[in-house]
Amino acid sequence: MAEFSWLSRSPLEHALVVGAHGARDVASGISLTEVRNFNLIQIMARRGKGAELASAATARFGVAAPAVPKAVSASDVTLIWSGPDQFLVLSKSGKHAMDILSHAFSQSASLSDQSHARALISVAGAKARTMLAKLSSIDLHPTAFPIGAAAATSIDHTSVNFWRGNDRPDGQPVFNVLVLASFAESLWRTMLDAAAEYGVDIGLSEELG
Amino acid sequence: MRIVCPFCGERELGEFTYLGDAKPARPAAGASEDDVFDYVYLRDNIAGAMSEHWYHAGGCRAWLKVTRNTLTHEISSVEPAAGVGAAKVGA
Ligand SMILES: [Zn+2]
Questions:
Q1: What's B59's domain CATH number?
Q2: For residue B81, which residues of chain A lie inside 8 Å, CB to CB?
Q3: Which Pfam families does this chain map to (chain A) (predicted)?
């Protein structure tokens, strides 16, 4: 029998080049950062087990899982709404991993490990909203899409889980995008093109912030 | 055209996929061949308010039952299709 050695790699490994991109005669208006090495588990309630899942989630994470399009954070985890009776559990690598969570939710939900199936891209900066408006039909005005707002939507015809994180220390907004691995490079290049005129600072984080 | 998804809110048409008439109901086991043929193949071509299934493929991936006027595209109601939100069924 063949022996396999599995090595997980970022789908943006080749496309991402850390440094400045696009317009140089302006102060960088956008930071595009890929975040690597996270655990991402999809949790979906089983038939008739919605209430049971809700209480199991509160017991496990210390916060209630979102029942509407929002992202809620506790000290070591972010729970992101992804549809009726389902949410994503995002944490640092090894924190809320599949083998741990599958025990906690074995009675109420079906789980699917998406840790290496998605790329996580963070779009931040003074021009982030303007740039995303080119690609998304979601209303990102601060009153319509405040911190913690989330959406399962499409950006440039690509399905994403999208939410607004806490503002950066300099007060600029942060938008997070989880995209399927096989679409990540295409979306990344689209984002680079949309952001180029504002001056882009491309970064890489080896750990969830 | 925009559809107000009961889970996601108002979204552009591009996020949705059209299935078709939401009216046909699966005949009971032992139904006549004519009834099954009707269910599988025959559809009304309605000019006016029609009940349709739409899929929010580019969003929450829920099936929706939409009442749409095929002449004006005016949408009078959107609700989750049967079985959506599995946790609620039988809860
Ligand atoms: Zn939806």
A1: 3.30.2270.10
A2: none
A3: SoxG
